[in-house]
Amino acid sequence: MPGYGDSRPAEMVATAQGRVAFLDHVLQELGMRRPVLVSPSMSGRFALPFLLARGDRLAGFVPVAPVGTKDYAAEQYHRVQTPTLILYGDRDASLGPQALQSLRHLPRHHVAVVPDAGHACYLDKPEDFHQALLGFLRQLK
């Protein structure tokens, strides 16, 4: 993602609208139609505005303790009809529960808590993470 890790900052992603446009462009370039967007941690800055603006273009959404959930009101989340799996590790004492407080307003959500896992539950307990993710994907069919 522009501005994260070793990538250079990009002016186009300085705003939520710019991040939506960036992610929309990436998905179009990849030729993806109705993908399931998995959004761990910092990618929430891109995925959440995209979900709220263009959630109808997604088959599903899987936020994994994303940042930025408090930036949006419950009413905004209520309008989203994208099936969502809210996923986090039970040892994530900050972002996981914090994200749940906001994301629970999504009308079509389920919650999966990965036991004995921290913030990066996909690294701590990859089998449990993948089991929850695959279960969600199967029910989207």
UniProtKB/TrEMBL annotation:
Lineage: Eukaryota, Metazoa, Chordata, Craniata, Vertebrata
UniProt keyword annotations, A-Z: Cytoplasm
Subcellular locations according to the entry: Cytoplasm
Protein known as: ABHEA protein
Species of the source: Pandion haliaetus
Gene: Abhd14a
Coiled-coil positions: none
One GO cellular component, as annotated: cytoplasm
Stored PANTHER family: PROTEIN ABHD14A (PTHR46197:SF1), PROTEIN ABHD14B-LIKE (PTHR46197)
Keyword Cytoplasm: yes
